[in-house]
């Protein structure tokens, strides 16, 4: 195995026309058995550990199915090729002997120990916590690796964040050839390059970003033309100028496909030399950009636009907070221009929702950390007009680029292009939500996708400020399809756009780099059809999901770490999810979610899950715990290893629940099925216990899935 993610390139490739050959992802259970999940195939393929052929959990593999299905009736197979490794780097500890060392990974998935030559320990000593990269692995032999970092044993936060990134397949370090390639790139922009571009360095230009941002992807310029129209430019870092196809830089950027933003760090898609220096649109520096420049009136009516390569010079670096203060106080640096941009952005925003965009808002948290990365406070991120100003102009640029490319044909066919699409809702998924929303008085017109969007927006307006707002917003988002990258343009339902792509963040997203390259080919009228583009889109979508999983896991870790300080304390919360084994509660003060296990409720009643009503209902008392209900909880456990919070429900007043079944009319009025009478003791009770054991297994599975 070489230092590439595919360790089997030198081996003889299997015959891809073999009808018994399938490609899929290997999922290894804790017991050591493997299952290959093949897209479009109903049944997974069982792989015994002896047939892994160096494959590990999460790897993309080719498997050959055997004729025999075995006694279990399950189809069995063997791995014949590792197509792509999920992970090359692992976190664990080293064990030394006199002549060699072994690395034992910290993982609940079985994997072989990794042999480390003493020359590759890089300063590690016996029992050190380290990160190791696998560099060679032949079948029937131990994998061989090298230590690439010795960790500080006392810094649990650093270890945990790195572990989350590695678990999701994100390498922590750039290969030497990638770093060297980035360091060789020149600081100065050649005069010959500037001559090829539209020069707008003399036009007022500025960036607006979070206070702690270091990579500035986008800038906005504005001036008034002689005809009275406004000229507004959206300028995006020209990453494709520096990162050329098939270079080491490009291959690494594609493999990562996205930057990952954790509470205390960024795991970047590109080396800092590019992301924070050459391509970052820092103030008072000339920068190469790809731009969309619009002529419009003060009402935001666009008269014409231009797309092409530019050179800019940012006059100022604003934070969102500074721009928000200028908007609210109506005074400050470039106040007039900011006010014009904000007014037009708000017009765009109203127009979008009028045309069918859905106005979902989600609550995001930000952690205040001490110098060691420990959370000492939690703040709620708010989307204010300053954020919306930037968002609307980025949406405009993304849509304009997608529309422009969408009009171009090659051999009477649309140009293959990485669109960002969002499918219309699945009616089957939507129906339970619609029934639930009815209980709060909201009606949905499901005749067309447009009428569904209109109904959603009306509900979101009606529910604003009411107790059920959060639950209906969250459930509504869950009914939606996930946005993906694909060459098949089906439009973006959530935004209400027929054409949409990602053009505005090439420092942190690989699809934007692909968009820039294809767009330039279209402008040059030298289009090269990339037959692998759809596969690249799928890879980018998968890596985006992995980044989101990493971010959620890191946020959960910080929440658990923060709530450790409040064990035994009580807080107001809102029920944010319900399952057969309990319900989740999100605290109002900190937005920290934990599970109230159904076992902790047994002393009050025997609760059963009502899926249609997103609730747990007491068999004897009829007491309901329903999504959106306000409850008081006590923090009883905070497990950092599992990134898990456990709460207990606290009765604020009224003492224990009564053991009487409420009147039929009361429950029927609330839309709740009448609970069956409490079971008598005996044989049936035994079955009930088995059911609860089943619930425990479900709890383990769903905890992981939900977090």
Walk me through what this model shows.
The chain is α+β, with helices and mostly antiparallel strands and 707 residues long. The protein has 4 domains: 21-84, Beta Barrel (OB fold (Dihydrolipoamide Acetyltransferase, E2P)); 94-153, OB fold (Dihydrolipoamide Acetyltransferase, E2P) (Beta Barrel); 180-420 and 500-550, no CATH class; 567-706, Beta Barrel (OB fold (Dihydrolipoamide Acetyltransferase, E2P)), CATH 2.40.50. It is 30% helix and 27% strand. It is built from 16 helices and 33 strands. Helix 1 (156-167) packs antiparallel against helix 14 (533-563) and helix 10 (427-438) runs antiparallel to helix 12 (469-479). It starts with 20 loop residues before the first strand and ends with a helix.
Strand and helix map with partners:
Blueprint: E1 21-28, E2 34-37, E3 45-47, E4 60-65, E5 76-84, E6 89-96, E7 101-105, E8 114-116, E9 129-136, E10 144-150, H1 156-167, H2 176-183, H3 191-195, E11 198-199, E12 205-209, E13 218-224, E14 230-237, H4 239-242, H5 248-256, E15 260-262, E16 265-267, H6 272-278, E17 286-296, E18 302-313, E19 316-319, H7 320-329, H8 335-354, E20 364-369, E21 375-381, H9 385-406, E22 409-410, E23 413-414, E24 419-421, H10 427-438, H11 449-463, H12 469-479, E25 484-486, H13 510-524, H14 533-563, E26 570-579, E27 582-587, E28 593-597, E29 607-610, E30 615-618, E31 624-626, E32 630-639, E33 644-650, H15 664-669, H16 683-706
Parallel strand pairs: 3-5, 11-18, 12-19, 28-33
Antiparallel strand pairs: 1-2, 1-4, 2-3, 4-5, 6-7, 6-9, 7-8, 9-10, 12-13, 13-14, 14-17, 15-16, 17-18, 20-21, 22-23, 24-25, 26-27, 26-32, 27-28, 29-30, 30-31, 32-33
